[in-house]
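Data card: per-record layout.
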Amino acid sequence: MLATLAGGVGAARFLAGLVRVVPPADVVAIVNTADDDEFHGLYVSPDLDSVTYTLAGASNIAQGWGLEGETFATLDALERYDVPTWFRLGDKDLATHLYRTTRMRQGAPAFGRHRGDHARMVDRCAFATDDRRSGAHADHRAARTRPRRRARDAAMVRR
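The structure for this 159-residue chain is written out next.
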């Protein structure tokens, strides 16, 4: 058994090469969750998805992330409502996040959610933690956004 720590596109490429020389059943990837977040009400695990999509041979190689043949009609439609769409979730990728979010709301543990998400793709990946967000990530996000919000709110009050 070979355990690796993995985080995103670079790790996905590394693991794709590793499973060519080591039997895939002997490799376990413990995947970063620090970048997990909610977008449009859906829980997104970008590093886990990059790793599993790549290992499954389903990733968009030209783009470097997401699924091959992805479209963005849903996000394009959301832009009509002036909703931030900087994090480009593709239409096929949204199905993963819809399913994952539903499973989370049903109380499934992270590994159970992941196995359901990608069982047909890759069985040997696990979240680094079962927390919805790592404490460091949540603290960092709060520290980063609070001053901006205060400044924005103060500016709105002055108007």
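Known properties of this structure: The first helix runs from residue 9 to 21. Confidence is low (pLDDT under 50) at residues 134-159.

See the next section for split statistics.
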